[in-house]
Amino acid sequence: MKKYIGLKLLVLWSLVTLSKVASADVKLPAIVSDHMILQQQIGAPVWGWADPGEAVTVEGNWGEKVTTTTDDNGKWKVFLKTPSHGGPYILKIKGKNVITIKNVMEGEVWLCAGQSNMGWRLSAVFQGAEDAASANYPNLRIFRSERKHSHKPQEDCNAKWTPCTPNSAATCSAVSFYFARKLHQELEIPIGIVVQPYAGTPIEGWMPKEIQMDDPRTRKIVEEMDKASATYDITQAKKQLERAMQRWKQGERRGRPVLRTPGNWGHQYPGNIFNGMIYPIRPYGIRGAIWYQGERNSKDVPQALNFRRQLALLINYYRTSWHELSSGNVAKDFPFYFTQLPSWTPAQEKPVEGLEASWVVNREMMRLVASEVPNTGMAVSIDTGDTIALHPKNKKPIGLRHSYLALKQVYGKDIVDNGPRFTKQTIKGNQIILEFNSIGSGLMGAKPGQLNSFAIAGNERKWHWATSCIKGSTVVVSSAEVPNPTAVRYAWAMNPSQRNLLYNREGFPASPFRTDNWPLFDPDKDRAVEVNKPQKPEGYQPKDWARPKMMQ
């Protein structure tokens, strides 16, 4: 009898549960919501969840309508044709319930991702408060997720689309804001930015762990973290938290305690940032991406050297996966622009800095990626930065330089989009003649007087400051101390910003570069040196640096 009653209760419970599932509403991810910008002139991906086998119709009042059926897991996805820029429109999603998305615009959408300097808010940068106060751009829309990392892919994120107002602009990423505002002003169409920053994150966190396991450095990180996490005891961790909470409530410790989690759950573990920040927004329709990250991958020279491989891997994975998940609606080679690391630490004094200067090695790796991976670009930023602060306040030039890359390369504007790029050296007696492209209307120094940011060496590999002069589209360098020169390095330091740097007359700086191929690190002879973080003096206030004005 008891078994019979128990069985009846079990059946009743099952029916109630099934009834609840059957009445589940159609749901949408956060990125499909009021005020959204849909990428124009593609089959824009729209997706969500409903009951398995349920018919879902997505209709835009610009005359497009698509119906699909959810899969066995209750997931659905459609591709809705979008016209040329315009709006506002209404998007309706109909299943057992109806969701109405209002104030939808169609225009250009860009992903803006990276670590803390990508996230640094507009109100905290030079001229940011003034620019935020006048930022009434109803057709510039911002989607910014809260920081999230996870050991497993997340289906959704906590965010919403917000039209650009003085309040929303003030808390927006400064680099993203200046990039988007320039596009909005020049193109005169709606612009959407999907802003996904997470502070202190290595590039390994921004792509799936599985695609990186042939990289020895990533594999070592995974093995060490997994080993350390194998002894994690959740019961013991909860007890420790309870004891800490008691001490906190009694005023014996400051700061509310949190549950200690295993290291491979954290934001430093490969793949965990991707799972929380990128996975939930794919395959939303985008035109391209801008990226500001690399500080966390430049603690020492060996780590910085590995960035070349990892950055190329990330770019190729984002492109391939976005293209496939969008059924080809997002270009398989969409433009991807990245920020070369700015200047940091005390100003350069030696002609060439060595193992202590990991950031310049990272800059060189980025320069190589920009030349090796098609449809990429690099916003050179060595004339921005700070001698003390790791989060410099001069973000406006960086955002604008990203916008010039897009305006020329994506939108066909007849402008100069970059600084002088080294192409070739010719040795002529005791001189080396350096050739450049992207010189715009001509080469110039940052200030009057001779360029003093070049170093020269012979086969003995001893670097000396070079005498440098501009001749047409070339720079001629020499030194009385190097009668038989073989190589040149330019701006090869953590912080070359205070030297007389090379620019074109449009106001874009040249990237640091080297003409030699000498090893930057010999594991048999060299010892890795971590960057020495400067101490912040009491009362220190950052000041912007002088630089030529960008003339566009």
From TrEMBL:
The keyword Signal does not apply. Residues 524-536 have a biased composition (Basic and acidic residues). InterPro entries: SASA, SGNH_hydro_sf, SIAE. Residues 524-552 are annotated as: Disordered. GO terms for biological process: carbohydrate metabolic process. GO terms for molecular function: sialate O-acetylesterase activity. Residues 108-231 form the Sialate O-acetylesterase domain. Gene3D superfamilies: SGNH hydrolase. Pfam families: SASA. Residues 227-254 form a coiled coil. Keywords: Coiled coil, Hydrolase. The keyword Hydrolase applies. This is Sialate O-acetylesterase domain-containing protein. It comes from marine metagenome. The lineage of its organism: unclassified sequences, metagenomes, ecological metagenomes.
